[in-house]
Amino acid sequence: MIGRIAGTIIHRAMDHVLIDVRGVGYIVHVSPRTAQSLPRVGEACALYTDLLVREDLLQLFGFPTLLEKEWHRLLTSVQGIGAKASLAILGTLGAEGVGRAIALGDWNAIRSAPGVGPKLAQRVVMELKDKAPTIMALGGALTVDAAPADEVIEAPKAQRPPAPPKANFTAEALSALTNLGYAPSEAASAIAEAGANPEATDTAKLIRTALRLLAPKD
């Protein structure tokens, strides 16, 4: 299994990138969002990868963070969602957007991805709503690159941008709410909704906002 590629970009396109690793070129399929965020040709690049193996086909799919890779693996577990559909969803919404849409049951957001119809979008939300909190809770830890610097080929300065701090907020807030006794799916939904509030700029504020949403309504 190839879990990570680090090397020099020798070709870029909107749906794939060719990375040279010590003289071997690897074609890595990516979403348009990821493609736009990558360095220029001739610069160093690192992507987490998922290898699709079939009888007559081997394809690598690349992701800027482990969080996005885990969402890809979860999305492709849904019947009807192949690797291309998963990349379309992640390319449209991003990893955090996918988590928010699934936690809130917002299948219209999933449907906004090219090639994803309403029935398939509803299936994604229905099948993954109870699984989403697990990935959301791991978000902060999953985006940390634990590899030693000497394992990175070429200059490490040009690697992917750091993960948004909100990934840590989400994981910490979800852990806090579940420790308070809220069901993971209920807590994830409240945190996803609270995350849209511009005032929820740290863990404590995100928790307070989510708790207000969870409070019994008169």
Automatic annotation (TrEMBL):
<keyword id="KW-0233">DNA recombination</keyword>
<dbReference type="GO" id="GO:0006310">
    <property type="term" value="P:DNA recombination"/>
</dbReference>
<dbReference type="InterPro" id="IPR011114">
    <property type="entry name" value="RuvA_C"/>
</dbReference>
<feature type="domain" description="Holliday junction DNA helicase RuvA C-terminal">
    <location>
        <begin position="170"/>
        <end position="215"/>
    </location>
</feature>
<dbReference type="InterPro" id="IPR036267">
    <property type="entry name" value="RuvA_C_sf"/>
</dbReference>
<keyword id="KW-0227">DNA damage</keyword>
<dbReference type="GO" id="GO:0006281">
    <property type="term" value="P:DNA repair"/>
</dbReference>
<dbReference type="GO" id="GO:0005737">
    <property type="term" value="C:cytoplasm"/>
</dbReference>
<comment type="function">
    <text>The RuvA-RuvB-RuvC complex processes Holliday junction (HJ) DNA during genetic recombination and DNA repair, while the RuvA-RuvB complex plays an important role in the rescue of blocked DNA replication forks via replication fork reversal (RFR). RuvA specifically binds to HJ cruciform DNA, conferring on it an open structure. The RuvB hexamer acts as an ATP-dependent pump, pulling dsDNA into and through the RuvAB complex. HJ branch migration allows RuvC to scan DNA until it finds its consensus sequence, where it cleaves and resolves the cruciform DNA.</text>
</comment>
<dbReference type="InterPro" id="IPR013849">
    <property type="entry name" value="DNA_helicase_Holl-junc_RuvA_I"/>
</dbReference>
<dbReference type="GO" id="GO:0009378">
    <property type="term" value="F:four-way junction helicase activity"/>
</dbReference>
<dbReference type="Pfam" id="PF01330">
    <property type="entry name" value="RuvA_N"/>
</dbReference>
<dbReference type="GO" id="GO:0009379">
    <property type="term" value="C:Holliday junction helicase complex"/>
</dbReference>
<feature type="region of interest" description="Domain III">
    <location>
        <begin position="167"/>
        <end position="218"/>
    </location>
</feature>
<dbReference type="Pfam" id="PF07499">
    <property type="entry name" value="RuvA_C"/>
</dbReference>
<dbReference type="InterPro" id="IPR000085">
    <property type="entry name" value="RuvA"/>
</dbReference>
<comment type="similarity">
    <text>Belongs to the RuvA family.</text>
</comment>
<feature type="region of interest" description="Domain I">
    <location>
        <begin position="1"/>
        <end position="64"/>
    </location>
</feature>
<dbReference type="GO" id="GO:0048476">
    <property type="term" value="C:Holliday junction resolvase complex"/>
</dbReference>
<dbReference type="InterPro" id="IPR010994">
    <property type="entry name" value="RuvA_2-like"/>
</dbReference>
<dbReference type="GO" id="GO:0000400">
    <property type="term" value="F:four-way junction DNA binding"/>
</dbReference>
<feature type="domain" description="DNA helicase Holliday junction RuvA type">
    <location>
        <begin position="1"/>
        <end position="62"/>
    </location>
</feature>
<keyword id="KW-0238">DNA-binding</keyword>
<comment type="subunit">
    <text>Homotetramer. Forms an RuvA(8)-RuvB(12)-Holliday junction (HJ) complex. HJ DNA is sandwiched between 2 RuvA tetramers; dsDNA enters through RuvA and exits via RuvB. An RuvB hexamer assembles on each DNA strand where it exits the tetramer. Each RuvB hexamer is contacted by two RuvA subunits (via domain III) on 2 adjacent RuvB subunits; this complex drives branch migration. In the full resolvosome a probable DNA-RuvA(4)-RuvB(12)-RuvC(2) complex forms which resolves the HJ.</text>
</comment>
<dbReference type="Pfam" id="PF14520">
    <property type="entry name" value="HHH_5"/>
</dbReference>
<protein>
    <recommendedName>
        <fullName>Holliday junction branch migration complex subunit RuvA</fullName>
    </recommendedName>
</protein>
<dbReference type="InterPro" id="IPR012340">
    <property type="entry name" value="NA-bd_OB-fold"/>
</dbReference>
<keyword id="KW-0234">DNA repair</keyword>
<dbReference type="GO" id="GO:0005524">
    <property type="term" value="F:ATP binding"/>
</dbReference>
<keyword id="KW-0963">Cytoplasm</keyword>
